[in-house]
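Wed. Picked up where I left off yesterday with Cellulose synthase operon protein YhjQ. The coffee machine is broken again, so keeping this brief.
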Amino acid sequence: MPLVCVCSPKGGVGKTTVAANLAYALARSGSKVLVVDFDTQNALRLHFGVPIADNRGFVAQSGTLSDWSQFILKVGPNLFVLPCGEVTEDERLQFEDNLMNEPMFIQRGLSAVLKIPDMVVIADMPPGRNAALKAMESVADMRIVVLLADTASLSLLPLVEQHKFMNKPRSHSIGEYYVVNQSDMRRTLSRDVTHFFEQRLRDKLLGTIHRDECVPEANASQRAIMDISPVSAAAFDVDHISKKVAVILGLSVGDGAYHHTASIYSS
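Structure written out below (tokens, as returned):
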């Protein structure tokens, strides 16, 4: 059961969009995918058609419940989401305290999921250094850092590489990789920053997602980029990145057919 953390050194880089569309792409290729929202903005659910008024989620009761799977929603063939849910400030602080001080907190809450063969778990993390990302260090197999093709991300790259925002991955983990988002080859600065990232990150760069009008349209429609515009540059980029992730994780890529999953999930 590979676990992938999607994170970023700062907000506003499209991290949640990348996590959601990576999940869509892997599920479409035949993998069973669960996306977990650890960001208390509770925005991940909106990428999967969950109504904005539906505030169900695991964080508020995560400290008292030994199994978070009852909050998982089925949102498509092979595809499931575990929303953060609406939380108060006290609930958020308690959740972070549990993450920091209970070594098996995540493993306990996701224990039912971890027993499902061949399930891929994608965790959408809060931006920057945070308790959730630190707690994930003991269980994550892969970390995907999302950056923008702009000067702000460029200036942060040395700090990211020196693990000033996030601790260095465990030596026996699969490792740390990068995605450059919203690259606009029509603009000189964006093009130059993208080329710098390509030269600097090399094999650690999973790919670049081009700036594309279909992306905000997909987000507004709460659907996958590839469903809104399957022949767009962004859809091609996400598909390419998902295939590289599948190879790195050793996933068996099928034809996208639905695979039966344990009955713990509800719609």
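Quick read: The chain has ten helices and eight strands.
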